[in-house]
Amino acid sequence: GAVVSQHPSWVICKSGTSVKIECRSLDFQATTMFWYRQFPKQSLMLMATSNEGSKATYEQGVEKDKFLINHASLTLSTLTVTSAHPEDSSFYICSARDGGGHEKLFFGSGTQLSVL
Amino acid sequence: GNSVTQMEGPVTLSEEAFLTINCTYTATGYPSLFWYVQYPGEGLQLLLKATKADDKGSNKGFEATYRKETTSFHLEKGSVQVSDSAVYFCALKSLQGAQKLVFGQGTRLTINP
To answer: Could you tell me the CA-to-CA distances from A115 to A10, A16, A46, A70, A99 in Å, in that order?
Structure first.
């Protein structure tokens, strides 16, 4: 079946640094990718929707200058957490919609970010 | 707005036990309802879904019935296996507006042999 590869699976960084998370669709073209964040014991929250070749659409309350999303190709979207702070520590998950007429959604395995 | 509330975990059961994971929702209109499962080290996968009231979704021995009157979509399995150990997410998608997936917080299930 379709696979979405998300890297890294976990990352620890110092406060003030930037971290990039990659999300790749391995065997299908993803015209739309989604980025979610989950804090402990809370719901998976949609952060933004990205469409290939255009600017991402951010959900209310998500800072677009802090969470930079690039969807430069049909198989790759990246989320960069800029100037990370401890409160950005969270579990980030991407998903990709198969645009090949199936309209199915496939998820990456997630990235645990810890900011010290 | 739309929201999903799940039974708080973690849930630990013995093999062959009966499983129920509660899920209730708040939504305008009549959303589609989903259960996703995330096995260790893998991405979320669609387990089952129901698109209208009284529909029953089923897969791999799991079932959930769309109950409009109680706004619930509880996940059940009659006899769990060790391989069912995973995190389970209940979700809804409204057919109106932006049609985004709204998730619950997930329930971690551990099955002991």
So the answer is: 11, 9, 21, 22, 35
Strand intervals (E) in B1-113: 3-6, 11-14, 19-21, 23-26, 32-38, 45-50, 56-59, 62-65, 75-77, 86-93, 101-103, 107-112
Chain B residues closer than 8 Å to A39 by CB: none
The whole-number pLDDT of residue B98 equals: 63
Q: Give the pLDDT confidence score for residue A30 in this predicted structure.
A: 87
Query: A110 and B43: CB-CB below 8 Å?
Result: yes
Task: Output the CA torsion sign for A11, A80, A69, B106.
Answer: positive
- For position A101, what pLDDT does the model report? 58
| C-beta atoms surrounding A80 within 10 Å | 15
Residues of A with Cβ-Cβ distance to B8 under 8 angstroms: 41
Give chain A positions within 8 Å (CB) of B105. 38, 41-44
> Across the interface, which of B36, B42, B46 has its CB nearest the CB of A109?
B42
Query: How many contiguous H segments (helices) and E segments (strands) does chain A have?
Result: 0, 11
User: Among partner residues A45, A49, A109, which is closest to B43 by beta-carbon distance?
Assistant: A109
A104–B105 C-beta distance less than 8 A: no
Q: Report pLDDT for B16.
A: 97
A60 touches chain B (CB under 8 A): no
* Tokens read off for B71: 């706004």
Confidence of residue A102 (pLDDT cuts 50, 70, 90): low
AA identity, residue B108: R
